[in-house]
Amino acid sequence: MRLYFEIGLRAFRRATIYRSAYIAGILTNAFFGTLICFMYQALYGSGGNVAGMSLHDAITYVWLTQSLISVGGGWMSTDIIQTIRTGEIANDMARPWSFFGYWLSRSFGERLLNLILRGTLTYLIGVLYFRAAIPSLEQFTPFLIAVLLSMVLSFSFGFIINMIAFWTIDATSMVWLVNTIMMFFSGFLLPLAFFPAPLAAIARLLPFQAITSLPVLIFLGKIEDIAILNSFLLQLFWIVLLVSVSLMIQRAAMRKLVIQGG
Amino acid sequence: MALIEVENVAKTFRVAKRYEGRFGAIRSLLAREYREVHAVDKVSFQLEAGEMVGYIGPNGAGKSTTIKMLTGILVPSSGRIMVAGRVPYQERVAHVRKIGVVFGQRSQLWWDLPTIESFELLRHIYKIPFERWRENLDTFSDILELGPFLHTPVRQLSLGQRMRADLAAALLHDPNILFLDEPTIGLDVVAKDRIRQFLQRINKERGTTVILTTHDLEDIERLCQRVILIDHGTLIYDGALEELRNRFGRERTVVIDIENGLPDNAHDWRPIGVNSVRREGRRFWFSFDRHATTAAALIGEIAQRYQIRDLTVEEPKIETIVRQIYESGSVTV
Ligand SMILES: Nc1ncnc2c1ncn2[C@@H]1O[C@H](COP(=O)(O)OP(=O)(O)O)[C@@H](O)[C@H]1O
Ligand SMILES: [Mg+2]
User: Fold this and answer.
1) pLDDT in the model for residue B267
2) Which of B35, B64, B212, B235 to mutate to test the pocket of ligand 1 (most atoms within 8 A of CB)?
3) Which CATH architecture is the domain B50-246 placed in?
4) pTM for the structure as a whole
5) Is residue B333 scored above 50 in pLDDT?
6) Bridge partner list, A53
7) In whole angstroms, what is the distance from residue B159 CA to residue B174 CA?
């Protein structure tokens, strides 16, 4: 366990080095946040609710999703694919550790920094310029738990997709495709409440809404009391499922192992 | 039982055929025809504990592929590998705990963090007792002079510094076997020398078994009594370096730059023992048989005729030796 903590710690520290990337990231998120908020303001006009969401809810939703993007909300990295392509993976394979555990800790460390720094600063912009909601502690605590769960969930999903690179060396285009699907069905682009019924039904059957939509709805107070527990259970269900698949794929990949280059 | 046993090991890669031209990419995708690459082809050898062996061969010979199979990160297509009583890929974790690996072309250190951070992580990865870790780090810092850059991010290190740090990283957990894939590639003479001295000490003082691949014959000359030579995936020689040299590395070339004022018959003159002479402007290449004459005698003779400005003696390259072995038709020694 200590080892995985140390890996995560280093990933966290490593991420602190890229300050300009951080600022660029925050500005990008703020830009899109602002753009979508203007759109909602125009659409909502003088007021009212749309599918149970007020304008204030919608604005909070936008800034939250923008803040969570680098935590795993609507974006999947190709880090593992990169090491497969360059052959760097050879070093990671020659270690007495769990390959999955190594990448999970690494990714957790990075995402934690993203949550603390990039996420918080982005959201702060939303609070200052668009009056995005400041949650109560009762809303914030379950929200935080849900986000931590969603980090493991979105990592495992990304791990599975990345590992497919063992079979097809050009998996990057697939990641791109999957990212697009994930952005849509996770509720990152649009709240699931705004989806037409059939699409919403599909979204609820997929793991992606447990990554973005559930934590955000908890924050907004749309999921309350016992429903919060159910939502945790749903996240846990997906975690158990995706981690198991990850480990299975890992075992198959180890047998297959084609390492590039000399 | 030998420490490392390799028996009829082969590795075949299936590579998708690529089509050229318009729609080539699509055709490649649809047709999915494969070509087989026999990277390693029925190789057998054994290594005893404490040996330091050079695994040599030209580019693409199958050296890295062999190392990857020995370290357990590639599964052989056929044949049997046992290292310290284990099948590497089957007991990967137990196996890699006891070995050290350096892939010369890619670092195992965290690129963006100070070097020491990677060393500290290795302590946790291999569960090295703190005292032992400290002791090893001090020893290696001493010999390899790591001190000045322990707190520098790895990406800022020179290639030589990075290589030294990588070597230390591979040895902190006292592995029984050290696998080195091209540990001196791209390094200058001084850096190469320091690494060779270090390897010699580790092998002597700690009894670490070392297997290193290289296409630099000088590495082998300085370090190994035994060499294994492969080409196109097949083993073509396994034995003493001396023997290899005597049988196939007999040709040397003296390269000479002379001062102005060439005699007219410069083209025809051929000292005894010299097989061929080549000339470009003021530079001459005299290739000779080491058993027929010596470099000293030859240079003396040349000096009597011409005024020498500069000279070097060239050793045969691995490529040359491989070619000679094929030409002589002798594969087993
Ligand atoms: N992952 C791979 N896929 C396909 N062919 C490979 C792969 N790795 C190595 N090869 C091929 O196998 C042969 C041996 O490669 P390698 O072991 O890297 O040689 P060396 O290290 O001696 O230069 C080469 O022809 C190389 O192109
Ligand atoms: Mg190689």
Assistant:
1) 62
2) B64
3) 3-Layer(aba) Sandwich (3.40)
4) 0.87
5) no
6) A50
7) 24
